[in-house]
Write a structure and sequence with these properties.
Elements lengths: L1 E4 L5 H11 L1 H7 L5 H4 L2 H10 L1 E6 L5 E10 L2 E9 L8 H12 L4 E7 L3 H9 L3 E9 L2 E7 L1
Parallel strand pairs: 4-5
Antiparallel strand pairs: 1-2, 2-3, 3-4, 5-7, 6-7
C-alpha cells in the first residue's frame, strides 16, 4: 500500500468510496441523509482545489482509502478520513492521518466526528488528538472536535 496525492481524475472513485465508507456512520446514527452521503462530485472538486486530498492505493493501484484537509490560520483542518469497509481496522486510517500531518505540517491540527463514533474518537486520541469542544447539531447528534 502507498499513500500519494490524489489527482482530479481520482475524485469520482474517492466519492464512490466515501459513499461506501459512510454507510456504517449512517447506520450508527440512523440517518442516511448525513452530508458525506449527499456530497456531490462538484463539492469534492471544490475541496480538491482549495486543499489537499491524499489517497491510499493497494498494489494494483485501486483506491482503498482517502483523507482531505485544508489550511486556515495555521490550522490544518482534516476531514473525510475514509477506508474501504472490508479493510477498516487494519491501520490504513492511522497511516492516512500520519501522512497528511507529514505532508502539511502546521502549528495545529483539528478534526471532528460524531459523538457515537467511538472507534473514530479512539483512533484520534491514540494519535495524540484531544477533545476541546462539543457542538450539538441535532438532539440525536453532537460533534466532538479534537485538536493536536
Amino acid at each position: 500500500m502507498r499513500i500519494i496525492k490524489a489527482d482530479l481524475s481520482d475524485l469520482r472513485e474517492i466519492l464512490d468510496l466515501q459513499y461506501l465508507a459512510y454507510q456504517s456512520e449512517a447506520i450508527l446514527y440512523n440517518d442516511f441523509s448525513i452530508p458525506p452521503l449527499k456530497q456531490t462530485l462538484e463539492e469534492v472538486e471544490h475541496e480538491f482545489e482549495n486543499g489537499i486530498i491524499l489517497k491510499a492505493i493497494d498494489d494494483d493501484g485501486a483506491i482503498i482509502g482517502s483523507i482531505r484537509a485544508y489550511t486556515e490560520n495555521g490550522t490544518l483542518h482534516i476531514n473525510k478520513v475514509i477506508v474501504r469497509p472490508n479493510l477498516q481496522g487494519q491501520g490504513i486510517g492511522t497511516m492516512l492521518l500520519k501522512e497528511i500531518e507529514k505532508v502539511c505540517p502546521q502549528e495545529r491540527y483539528e478534526l471532528y466526528t460524531g459523538d457515537k463514533s467511538v472507534r473514530n474518537i479512539r483512533l484520534y486520541e491514540r494519535l495524540g488528538y484531544v477533545k476541546f469542544k462539543e457542538q450539538e447539531v441535532t438532539p440525536e447528534l453532537k460533534f466532538i472536535y479534537l485538536q493536536k
